[in-house]
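Postdoc handover notes: sequence design on the structure in folder B. Input tokens:
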């Protein structure tokens, strides 16, 4: 195995890792190993927080503390996960980051993989750039996952050989591109439509927003996109498809949260330190939201009969806010639809003629939306 890519935040970062492989390592004669969290939003997984190895059936042990996730693996109810399907549809091998042993446990996983496979390169990839946070930025919404992987990589035995790469500055809706720009290093790649082609089928069903926007900007999308349940405005610019090399140790030194969680041995301990620095953790947010959603979505039909009218009303309002695009996840959250509706919304999306991912919805006044099949 020549390439080990660590998906800093899991989820969409794992999809972006496959795109990165195509852009940087297409000449290789073997796939990469992508080390990633299984941490899906509540619209997919009703259980807050990341998944542990015990939450799956059918994992395969790679090293004493690292488990591979094959395409045949299944999450144990009530958990849900996109990672097994990702492993089934992409040619790369996927291994599970287990944050329940804290940053120290992730460091141990990295050390075992590096010793076992002796890869030629190790890349830590983050889409959006919140891994470059200092910890006190008011726009931060999900700092813990990135802080844990940043700390683990910075303290790993192979740290000197690990490259920190940031793709799509600002596309995750957390730190604005203007804030990130002074913290970024040189551009080492700019994604192209050819790079997107390998992962395009995955984006028809995968709920990642940042990676979908990374692909969309590589395909030429420009404007302002609303994301997440809060409708955060994310500019789609020429910076969108770029990949920057950032000094790993400098990023770690500047990230208060990463330094604070570096010696943690449990996820609970890491959460406590996250609350002390940031006021809360993303898992706290998921817990509160899960309680709010419980019962409410059970009574919501997957495809309401008046869905086209609801979509048109949403589009009109979004256009008045200056948006040009949204994501199917944002649309589903805004219309209070359950996770099963994501695929239906992607099918309704008419942006395929523009070659954008099905999960990125182009807003147009008077856009025709087919009525759902009954």
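Designed sequence:
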């Amino acid at each position: 195995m020549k390439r080990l890519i660590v998906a800093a935040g899991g989820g969409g970062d794992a999809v972006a890792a496959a795109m990165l492989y195509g852009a940087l390592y297409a000449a290789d004669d073997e796939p990469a190993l992508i080390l990633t969290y299984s941490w899906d939003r509540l619209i997919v997984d009703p259980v807050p927080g990341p998944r542990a190895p015990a939450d799956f059936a059918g994992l395969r042990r790679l090293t004493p503390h690292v488990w591979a996730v094959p395409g045949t693996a299944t999450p144990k109810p009530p958990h849900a996960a996109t990672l097994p399907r990702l492993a089934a549809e992409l040619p790369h091998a996927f291994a599970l980051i287990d944050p329940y042993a804290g940053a120290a446990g992730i460091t141990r996983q990295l050390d075992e993989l590096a010793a076992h496979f002796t890869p030629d390169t190790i890349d830590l990839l983050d889409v959006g750039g919140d891994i470059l946070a200092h910890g006190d930025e008011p726009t931060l919404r999900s700092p813990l996952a990135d802080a844990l992987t940043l700390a683990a990589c910075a303290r790993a035995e192979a740290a000197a050989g690990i490259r920190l790469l940031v793709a799509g500055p600002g596309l995750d809706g957390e730190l604005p591109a203007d804030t990130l720009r002074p913290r970024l290093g040189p551009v080492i790649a700019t994604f192209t439509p050819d790079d997107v082609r390998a992962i395009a089928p995955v984006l028809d069903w995968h709920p990642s927003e940042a990676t979908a926007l990374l692909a969309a900007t590589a395909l030429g999308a420009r404007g302002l996109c609303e994301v997440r349940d809060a409708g955060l405005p994310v500019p789609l610019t020429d910076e969108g498809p770029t990949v920057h090399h950032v000094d790993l140790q400098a990023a770690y030194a500047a990230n208060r949260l990463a330094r604070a969680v570096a010696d943690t041995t449990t996820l609970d301990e890491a959460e406590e330190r996250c609350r002390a620095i940031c006021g809360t953790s993303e898992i706290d947010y998921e817990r509160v939201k899960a309680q709010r959603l419980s019962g409410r979505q059970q009574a919501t039909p997957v495809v309401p009969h008046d869905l086209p009218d609801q979509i048109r009303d949403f589009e009109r309002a979004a256009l008045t806010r200056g948006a040009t695009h949204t994501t199917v996840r944002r649309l589903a959250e805004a219309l209070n639809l359950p996770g099963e509706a994501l695929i239906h919304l992607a099918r309704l999306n008419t942006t395929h003629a523009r070659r954008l991912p099905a999960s990125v919805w182009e807003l147009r006044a008077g856009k025709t939306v087919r009525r759902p099949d009954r």
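Context for whoever picks this up: Residues 2 and 120 are 5 Å apart (CA to CA). Don't rerun without checking with the PI first.
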